[in-house]
Amino acid sequence: MPAALSGIVFNELQVVVPGVGAIDANNDGFLRRDDDAIELHNLSSGTVDISGWELWDTQNNTSIASKLATINPGVTMAPGGYFTIVEASGDFNNLDNVGPGMQADRSLLPSNDATFALFNPTSGDFILLRGETAAASETTMVAALEAIHPSATQVGTTEVFPLFSSGGFASVLRETDGSDTWVNGAASLGAANCFAEDTLIATPDGERRVQDLAAGDLVCRAGGGVAPVLWLGRQTIVTRFAGDAARLVRIAAGVLDTHRELRVTQEHGMLIDGVLVNAGAFVGLPGIDLVPLYQTPKRFAVYHVETEAHDVIVANGAASETFIDYTGRRAFDNFAEYLSLYGAERIYPEMKPARITSARLLPEALRTRLGGAAQQDMRQSA
């Protein structure tokens, strides 16, 4: 179980990086550094009064620890509830619209070198969360809290979150709310190009769910033959951070040769007439749309299949690309697994077919043919 203060745990940190998916945490209409945020979560079965509790951090300096914010009077957290502190001024609704948030006294600066403390000044109890490279600042934090409270006591063990990457993450969070595992949670916009869970991948022994594949398994190539799986990448998408990029492309059964509905991310390439087309470019054609955000889970996983080379395999009957390292593998939750298998990332070229990345680049003849074929195929599969 994670370290908890009367059942309250750190649950998520957002750092706003230019060009990276994040949310307007302070609701001022702008996405800026003053939207840095820290989310708390109540794992207990009872309501917890957090009035007067304090949030501290080391602000990237191992020799200084100071208070960021004091939680307003009358603030309670319901069982399973959330409470978020942002850098901006004024009250706001927290990220899950569960209750009021509050202003931090200064910049939150969630970072790799920071240690955070949630401190109850009445009891002296506190919990700690720090970045992978912040061991020295943890010592500073404990000394600072012990100096202001004669019986300051750490509850549980210090939790460690993975390194933020300015190239691809806006958040670090628990893999599942309340779990012990911290992951990078929000990919940069357009970074994900993967299959939805339960997509059926053709193998020599029949179709298998994508999440059940593992290194060494064989998958069927769309052009014939088989290819061994080198790695199955898993990426957690956080809808509120990824925004519209979290909306999967929904391809109806019978369209693009699918035998059942297929859902993929918008940048995922589908092979048709010898051309790779990003799935998002098909949106608006008969039988192809984006899943609405209100139908999208708060958090969900997508998967990508890596083979020896950039290739085309069969997913729900449709020709669909394997992994290509546009954004690297660090965007995936199980990147450490890849390193344990191969030691370092490898780079290989994209396959020869041209790639169409947007609807306006679709040739009119292809658009017309797809539109007519999709309507006929949907009638036949109905």
UniProtKB/TrEMBL annotation:
SUPFAM superfamilies on file: Hedgehog/intein (Hint) domain (SSF51294), Lamin A/C globular tail domain (SSF74853)
Annotated LTD domain residues: 1-143
Domain of life of the organism encoding this protein: Bacteria
InterPro entries listed in its UniProt record: Hedgehog/Intein_dom, Hint_dom_sf, Lamin_tail_dom, Lamin_tail_dom_sf
One Pfam assignment: LTD
Protein name: Intein
Species, as recorded: Roseicyclus mahoneyensis
